[in-house]
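Sharing a chain and its predicted structure for anyone who wants a worked example. Both blocks are below, sequence first, tokens second.
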Amino acid sequence: MTSARQAILGRLRSSGDPAAEYEQIARDYLIRHHEQDLRELLAERLADYRAIVHDAPVSELPTALREGPYVIPPDLPAEWTAGLADRVVTEPYDLEAVGGVITGCAVAIAETGTIVLDHGPRQGRRALTLVPDHHLIVVTPDQIAADVPEALARLDLTRPLTFISGPSATSDIELSRVEGVHGPRTLEVFLV
């Protein structure tokens, strides 16, 4: 006598691929909701979320840095931290002791003002972007997607994704806003 579990698993194994029975549904999403410049729209939406936005070249990055040291991923481009040797470290022993983190991103979504990290090149490990109190992100023009469907098409959805829409914040039952509870209190974005 077989158990119910074995009977169910046997039926599933013998049924083949159930998804093959269904036709593929076309998903013709509206990608671009605005005719506005994507860079301008991203800057506007980031500011709505209380992020500090710089529309400036990377050479102006040092002027934005507050008290360091700043931790950086080991593969960050050298020009992003030129002249900052005394203020950046690549191997922090205590993430709570650093002033902030400088990273790149995987994609930035103009429509929602959201920055997505997949913890790939220029982004470092996940803890690096969640523990320090100040997160400075450099976004290049080719990383700006119009909308969520376009952004998702650019991402490897099997990687660990972190979606950032402004500084970390939460509210209590009386809607009192508290920032920095489960991530950086300050989000600063350089649109280069």
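Comments welcome. The chain has one domain: 33-191.
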